[in-house]
């Protein structure tokens, strides 16, 4: 059986940066698959890397700046990330995504990115991201269902 880790990263004190954490917390409530584990990694990259050890597939959920509309959801294979011109799409990515990329031969990985409105000191999502919450949640739920089904 595959062991799949869904890792939500972000900083709860930095407005829309928290979106990965909020999504993992919400999605975990409806998880009935024992082979899928939801983990809140916050911004502790080393903790996140420790938790994904031994997983066959890692799905990272994070706020990412890709120049799209606020709330737009993008999926990328972690193998694709080094092809990006720079890796400054997320404040967490440098160490985490490079480490996951090093494991690409034996561990599949994906990034589900949500375009933030603003990342600044503030607790809670921005008005625009909050208004899109239900749509974002359902979109991410569908993406995870599709990615998990690929693993079986």
Automatic annotation (TrEMBL):
Cited InterPro entries: Pept_HybD-like_dom_sf, Peptidase_A31
Keyword line: Aspartyl protease, Hydrolase, Protease
Keyword set includes Transmembrane helix: no
Record GO biological process: protein processing
GO molecular function: aspartic-type endopeptidase activity; enzyme activator activity
Record bears the keyword Protease: yes
Pfam families: HycI
Highest taxon in the source lineage: Bacteria
Database matches in NCBIfam families: hydrog_prot
Family assignment from sequence similarity: Belongs to the peptidase A31 family.
PANTHER family: HYDROGENASE 1 MATURATION PROTEASE (PTHR30302), HYDROGENASE 2 MATURATION PROTEASE (PTHR30302:SF1)
Descriptive protein name: Hydrogenase maturation protease
Organism whose genome encodes this protein: Pontibacillus yanchengensis
Organism placement in taxonomy: Bacteria, Bacillati, Bacillota, Bacilli, Bacillales
């Amino acid at each position: 059986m595959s062991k799949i880790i869904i890792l939500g990263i972000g900083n709860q004190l930095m407005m829309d940066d928290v979106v990965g954490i909020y999504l993992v917390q919400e999605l975990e409530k409806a998880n009935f698959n024992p082979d899928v584990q939801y983990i809140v990694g916050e911004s502790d990259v080393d903790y996140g890397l420790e938790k994904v050890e031994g997983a066959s597939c890692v799905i990272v959920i994070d706020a990412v700046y890709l120049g799209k509309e606020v709330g737009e959801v993008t999926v990328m294979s972690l193998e694709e990330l080094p092809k990006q011109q720079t890796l400054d799409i997320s404040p967490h990515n440098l160490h985490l995504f490079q480490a996951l990329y090093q494991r690409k031969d034996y561990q599949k990985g994906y990034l589900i990115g949500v375009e933030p409105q603003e990342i600044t000191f503030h607790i809670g999502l921005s008005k625009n991201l909050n208004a899109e919450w239900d749509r974002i949640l359902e979109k991410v739920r569908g993406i995870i269902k599709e990615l998990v089904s690929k693993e079986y």
